[in-house]
Automatic annotation (TrEMBL):
<keyword id="KW-0479">Metal-binding</keyword>
<dbReference type="InterPro" id="IPR018289">
    <property type="entry name" value="MULE_transposase_dom"/>
</dbReference>
<feature type="domain" description="SWIM-type">
    <location>
        <begin position="303"/>
        <end position="335"/>
    </location>
</feature>
<dbReference type="InterPro" id="IPR007527">
    <property type="entry name" value="Znf_SWIM"/>
</dbReference>
<dbReference type="InterPro" id="IPR006564">
    <property type="entry name" value="Znf_PMZ"/>
</dbReference>
<dbReference type="Pfam" id="PF04434">
    <property type="entry name" value="SWIM"/>
</dbReference>
<keyword id="KW-0862">Zinc</keyword>
<protein>
    <recommendedName>
        <fullName>SWIM-type domain-containing protein</fullName>
    </recommendedName>
</protein>
<dbReference type="Pfam" id="PF10551">
    <property type="entry name" value="MULE"/>
</dbReference>
<keyword id="KW-0863">Zinc-finger</keyword>
<dbReference type="GO" id="GO:0008270">
    <property type="term" value="F:zinc ion binding"/>
</dbReference>
Amino acid sequence: MTSRLANKLFLDKVRKTPSMNVHELLTKVTEELKLDFSLKKGYRTLQKVRAAIEGSHEKQYELLEDFCGELRKANPGSTVFVETEVDDEGISRFKRLYMCLEPLKRGYLAGCRCWIGMDGCFLKGPYGGQLLTTVGMDADNKMYPLAIAVDLRISNSKNWCIMTDKQKGLVQAVRDKLPEAEHRCCAQHLYSNFKLNHRGLALKDRLWRCARASYMNQFIREMELLRQQSELAHQWLADKDPKTWSRSHFRAGMDCDILVNNMSPLSENFEILEKAKRDQSTCIASYAGTNRYRVSCPFGEQFVVDMAGKTCNCRKWQLRGIPCGHAAACINRRHEQPE
Ligand SMILES: [Zn+2]
């Protein structure tokens, strides 16, 4: 069998199943066509066939402009563009690409929180570069893909929360484009930097307690406990603006209190509510007039819940938009179900 015939044979199979590996391919060819093919020959042919189907990297870059044009045509209202620059030899080269499809924009505006998470990763392959992604969060705290790279027209950025890692470029871009938005930094990135010089489970636990503290007194208490454990670790953390990493300093009313960009550890609304229902059993609520309750908790802690304003001075209700354990105790006292 000539190698031309082999290429043609493989071409159809690989085109139909692009993920096919050489062993699967050889099995298929042997079974269907009763042909014997060596592994080495299989590899070489597969390589050629892949290049024929996908094209070289250079060829693919040349097609980008057309690809973006097709995307715009198929999804009117999308923002898709490629930027190129001319090098010393006068050749136009790829610089960056931005893509935000119209259906994703629409879905984001219709059903997501005023929260944007940004993350980046370095690309492997012959040209390197960086991929930046932005995600939103839907009502069920699930990730919602939004765009790659950033260019959002947000009229009132005061009500927005942007979360990024500590990359200088991103921090500056948010400051320039959305000066009024709340800018949080991913606490996981903060911890990654923290642990370079401050190791150990005890310190890790202390840092996360400071990040999770939802009101000022709790934050001060947790920072003091960290200081008692390590002056140096405390100094390192105290230098970071708590507005960017501790719940106690986050703006209320965002319906979102997450600390990290990777949302896997985040509980769903249902679970948060179930926890609040469990927590309330250790608290005692007493009516303090005009829809307010005083809630006494273990260790002598006291909180004030305002049922009309939907606030508690532990701030969790305002931060998440879901009742905290203290509020649940008040609702229970009123013989209502927290929903
Ligand atoms: Zn509370």
